[in-house]
């Protein structure tokens, strides 16, 4: 028998206790005391109970709501996923064509090029954001469907636009769930 | 490349180097067994572990004993992770009541985590219980990275010792790297991530009422959403730091609960390269010539930066076929990418995660433009030596340094030396093994897969891109990266087995020759540098080292790449001059 067997077994088991049990437990304790909400999925709560996570996109299809990004998993958060289509994949081209057609059908006067994030699916299938351009692209449709002024809707988009962190990190974006809730008059 | 992208990449490199310098000194002190502040705090725990294991941290090991210790420790690691997955339905912390993992998938995942590959044939939230993720995977994230640091420390000692029969004590290296390097870094990062919105809880998934009822794929009305939770941040921190990469969720760090904000993205992305970069500087300190560490780091950056530029540029473009349909190309290729990161930060991550042998993703590489996908693929194929895995990247790069001085020696016809050690036939043989084994795994594996029915069955994209999926998969497994062109249906008996074997060869087929090399180098006398010695800290050597890596990688893989991403790029652009 090798002399290495006992230390290998003992150290594997004891390091399992240290890194696999004690460490996650300490992180959980600290994280919960720092921000319990952040550690528990950043849930958004209304009077009736949780109505979603601020970080997880939901499916919106009515003309009076802002639409989020196309999702390969239909915003079913039980299992994240993407299309994994390459740029030359005909299925991708067909899907993009259909998405553009749907946007144009809902707002026939739109002639601008369609913002890419509105017709290309996200990596997670659960992207909670769209770009400010994608929100503005939908402003006229949403305003009409709700019988409100386009300027008012654009101002709402502006108010819900998050900029880059420190001016460098990430891209400007709008949280679709928050924007739609604000539109619907939620506090 | 936009100004914004340049600014991002510049900030990234600056912060990385600024953090790597002090961390490098610190790591060198840890593996030398010098006293540190943390050692005063955790010293009793360290000594308790040695006593329980019945080892003395000062007992020096011959390279063969060191290797045997590494292999036993890793074998038990594989067995425990396999067992945990097979029995998770009987174990605690399984609130979603997930069943046992299938044997072939459990084998693949166990090998994957022990070998520091962390290939994801599993989908975290749908396959693995909290218990399996924590006790099995999080632990392996730590100890597989610590194994890499240990082997590197052994090699560094071999260079600095003369006529020595031993290269250190594996148990001490393993425990110190875990307790004093990985654990504190992971703790700090995990808390920061959780404060920004990464999940960290033992509570079961949350059920929420949707704001608007949605229509499911079969026309059913959906009014609820299940938000999967779990002890995520603790695992995500170490999977980023330890060049592991196995995601808590299926889509890894593209998932908003795994990587919720641009700030978490930057921190996770920094963690990809932090320890591998720092260890270069530790190495310089360990061989008592810090310039050597900076030279190796310089060679890594010399390869990394141009490839980063290519990838960021490529993802800033949109395929002409999509522009033609009426899509605005200004934001770049956003298929498979998240809005909060955008194209530039996704390309930066893709380059960093494959330069390091991490393999976590924040965007789907399968949907990258052809050249954007070529960059991560080739970074893996050159052997994961540009930063590479924690420890493993640097010992791989040092093997290339041996090859570089050997080639330079051939040109002038004298015996080459590296850091005062004469490089002779045995060393070059071991170096050749280290370079050839993973490359053979990639090319032979890909050839078998595309020639067989069960291999082709996994392909999801038509044409050249389908071949790229297979080539990427084997490049990732045999070089212990773990990222994927995820369209490849890799959870099949064929791929679980084939890729599992590639991971074993790519990890242990390298560790054994590297430790043999360490044993041989330690035994040698150190020769003082003479007038004919090539200095290995100069820009000339940095260039030579980078050129050897690039040349070997290009000669081995350009034919295969031509069949995949290169032909796809020509198809994409050729039809639209």
UniProtKB/TrEMBL annotation, chain A:
Subcellular location field: Cell membrane
GO molecular function, a single term: P-type potassium transmembrane transporter activity
Keywords: ATP-binding, Cell membrane, Ion transport, Membrane, Nucleotide-binding, Potassium, Potassium transport, Transmembrane, Transmembrane helix, Transport
Domain of life where this protein originates: Bacteria
Family, as annotated: Belongs to the KdpC family.
Subunit structure, interactors included: The system is composed of three essential subunits: KdpA, KdpB and KdpC.
Name recorded for this polypeptide: Potassium-transporting ATPase KdpC subunit
Lineage: Bacteria, Pseudomonadati, Myxococcota, Polyangia, Nannocystales
Encoding gene (name): kdpC
Automatic annotation (TrEMBL), chain B:
Keywords: Cell membrane, Ion transport, Membrane, Potassium, Potassium transport, Transmembrane, Transmembrane helix, Transport
Membrane topology of the entry: Multi-pass membrane protein
GO cellular component: plasma membrane
Keyword Glycoprotein: no
InterPro entries xref list: KdpA (IPR004623)
Membrane-spanning intervals of the chain: 66-84, 142-159, 179-203, 265-287, 294-315, 385-410, 431-451, 493-519, 540-562
Pfam families (UniProt xref): KdpA
Subcellular localization, as worded in the UniProt entry: Cell membrane
Entry GO MF terms: P-type potassium transmembrane transporter activity; potassium ion binding
HAMAP family xrefs: KdpA
Similarity-based family: Belongs to the KdpA family.
Function: Part of the high-affinity ATP-driven potassium transport (or Kdp) system, which catalyzes the hydrolysis of ATP coupled with the electrogenic transport of potassium into the cytoplasm. This subunit binds the extracellular potassium ions and delivers the ions to the membrane domain of KdpB through an intramembrane tunnel.
Subunit structure: The system is composed of three essential subunits: KdpA, KdpB and KdpC.
Name by which UniProt lists this protein: Potassium-transporting ATPase potassium-binding subunit
Source taxonomy: Bacteria, Pseudomonadati, Myxococcota, Polyangia, Nannocystales
């Amino acid at each position: 028998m090798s002399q290495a067997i006992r230390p290998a077994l003992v150290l594997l088991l004891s390091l399992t206790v240290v890194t696999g049990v004690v460490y996650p437990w300490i992180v959980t304790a600290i994280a919960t005391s720092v921000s319990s909400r952040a550690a528990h999925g950043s849930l958004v709560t209304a009077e009736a109970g949780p109505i979603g996570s601020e970080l997880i996109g939901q499916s919106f299809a009515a003309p009076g709501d802002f639409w989020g990004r196309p999702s390969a998993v239909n915003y079913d958060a039980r299992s994240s996923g993407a299309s994994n289509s390459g740029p030359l994949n005909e299925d991708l081209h067909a899907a993009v064509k259909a998405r553009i057609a749907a946007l144009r059908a809902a707002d026939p006067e739109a002639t601008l090029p369609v913002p890419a994030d509105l017709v290309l699916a996200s990596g997670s299938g659960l992207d909670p954001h769209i770009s400010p351009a994608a929100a503005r692209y939908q402003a006229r449709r949403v305003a009409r469907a709700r019988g409100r002024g386009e300027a008012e809707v654009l101002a709402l988009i502006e108010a819900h636009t998050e900029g880059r962190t420190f001016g460098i990190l990430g891209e400007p974006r709008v949280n679709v769930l928050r924007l739609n809730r604000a539109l619907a008059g939620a506090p | 490349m936009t100004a914004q992208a340049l600014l991002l990449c510049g900030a990234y490199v600056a912060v990385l180097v600024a953090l790597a310098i002090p961390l490098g000194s610190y790591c060198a002190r840890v593996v030398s067994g010098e006293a540190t502040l943390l050692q005063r705090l955790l010293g009793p725990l360290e000594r308790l572990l040695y006593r329980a294991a019945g080892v003395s941290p000062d007992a020096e090991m011959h390279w063969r004993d060191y290797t045997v210790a590494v292999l036993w420790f890793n074998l038990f690691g594989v067995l425990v992770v396999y067992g945990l997955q097979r029995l998770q339905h009987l174990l605690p912390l399984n609130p979603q009541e997930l069943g046992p993992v299938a044997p072939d998938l459990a084998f693949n995942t166990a090998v994957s985590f022990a070998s520091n590959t962390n290939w994801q044939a599993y989908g975290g939230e749908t396959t693995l219980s909290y218990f399996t993720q924590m006790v099995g995977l999080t632990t392996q994230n730590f100890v597989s990275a610590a194994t890499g640091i240990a082997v590197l420390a052994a090699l560094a000692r071999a260079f600095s010792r003369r006529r020595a029969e031993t290269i250190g004590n594996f148990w001490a290296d393993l425990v110190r790297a875990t307790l004093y390097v990985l654990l504190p870094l992971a703790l700090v990062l995990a808390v920061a991530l959780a404060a920004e919105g990464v999940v960290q809880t033992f509570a079961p998934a949350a059920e929420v009422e949707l704001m608007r009822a949605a229509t499911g794929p079969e026309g059913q009305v959906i009014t609820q959403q299940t938000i999967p939770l779990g002890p995520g941040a603790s695992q995500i921190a170490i999977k980023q730091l330890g060049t592991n990469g196995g995601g808590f969720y299926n889509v890894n760090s593209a998932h908003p609960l795994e990587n919720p904000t641009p700030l978490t993205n930057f921190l996770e992305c920094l963690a990809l390269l932090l320890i591998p970069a720092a260890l270069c500087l530790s190495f310089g300190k360990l061989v008592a010539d810090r310039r050597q560490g900076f030279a190796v780091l310089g060679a890594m950056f010399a390869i990394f930066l141009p490839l980063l530029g290519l990838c960021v540029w490529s993802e800033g473009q949109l395929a002409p076929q999509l522009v033609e349909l009426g899509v605005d190309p200004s934001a770049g290729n956003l298929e498979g990418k998240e809005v909060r990161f955008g194209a530039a930060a996704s390309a930066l991550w893709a380059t960093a995660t494959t330069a390091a042998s991490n393999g976590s993703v924040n965007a789907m590489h399968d949907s990258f433009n052809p050249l954007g996908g070529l960059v991560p693929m080739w970074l893996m194929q050159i052997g994961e030596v540009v930063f590479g895995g924690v420890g493993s990247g640097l010992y791989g790069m040092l093997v290339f340094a041996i090859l570089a001085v050997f080639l330079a020696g051939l040109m002038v016809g004298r015996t080459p030396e590296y850091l005062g050690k004469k490089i002779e036939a045995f060393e070059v043989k071991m170096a050749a093994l280290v370079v050839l084994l993973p490359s053979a795994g990639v090319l032979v594996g890909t050839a078998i897969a595309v020639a067989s029915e069960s291999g082709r069955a996994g392909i999801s994209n038509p044409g050249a891109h389908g071949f790229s999926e297979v080539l990427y998969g084997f490049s990732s497994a045999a070089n212990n990266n773990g990222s994927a062109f995820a369209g490849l249906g890799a959870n099949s008996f064929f791929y679980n087995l084939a890729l599992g074997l590639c991971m074993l060869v790519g990890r242990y087929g390298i560790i054994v020759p590297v430790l043999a090399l360490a044993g041989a180098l330690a035994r040698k006398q150190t020769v003082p540098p003479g007038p004919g010695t090539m200095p290995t800290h100069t820009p000339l050597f940095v260039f030579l080292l980078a050129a050897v890596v690039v040349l070997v990688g290009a000669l081995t893989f350009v034919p295969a790449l031509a069949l995949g991403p290169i032909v796809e790029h020509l198809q994409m652009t050729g039809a639209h001059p």
